[in-house]
Amino acid sequence: MPKGITSTEGLIRKIFKIKHADDESLFYRGHANDTYLLEPSLYRKQKLIDAEHLLFRELLVSNPADFSGDIATFEKLVRMQHYSLPTRLLDLTSNPLIALYFACKSHEMATAEVIVFKIKNSEIKFFDSDTVSCLANLARLQKQDKDQIDFTLAQVPFNATLPITKLLHFIREEKSFFVDKIVPGDLKRIFCVRGKMTNNRITSQSGAFLIFGLGATLGTGHPGISIERLSINKNNKKKILMELDALNINESTVFPYIENSAKYISKKYDA
């Protein structure tokens, strides 16, 4: 499609034509520039990956009250992501129009895109999944522990190694009943996670997340996850934003905080 999508209606028509199996669900993400990579913010710099356990702890130490209601590490990572701390999470939405808004809201004059994820239902977990706990708590392991994980071992000896016993300790802090049965391969995978609607932003954006395991990359796809990219014509971003506004998708509703509502209202009457 050389011209790219030029309207909200055009995106909807395209979405309706995407075929997916009964055992798959569709999720979306919007990029203001089609050169952006599909990777979590943590993975964009090696220094951040190496310091992941420090990033996690320092934000908890400096702002403990903000995390007082979060029990699981995954919940803490979601809140950290919300506060723009680099994490191993990548935001998705179940609403293609929200993805379209994020693709168009930047003033960057570049071809944008809406990425469609077809995800096997078996690869979709809930916030309290044991598998999600395993991947989320990787954020608490020091770099040297992650480096020493031996994925060549079978499950029983794997769970008895020192780095994994440390990981099990972290997991049991939120799940005291958790048994020593981490599947080695799961720690290198990517799963889609439906989190609790614990803040207005997740609710308003119909939010979900991809959680990335050690060294996991998405590229053009991943086991259980396939990707289709829809280009958005850069010359039509402003028009598309006006169409979305008519559908009540704008800065005030996507980012439901009073300062954003005030900013939106001010722009609306000063245009």
From TrEMBL:
Domain FRG: 22-116
InterPro entries per record: FRG-dom
Protein's UniProt name: FRG domain-containing protein
Pfam hit, one: FRG
Originating species: Chromobacterium rhizoryzae
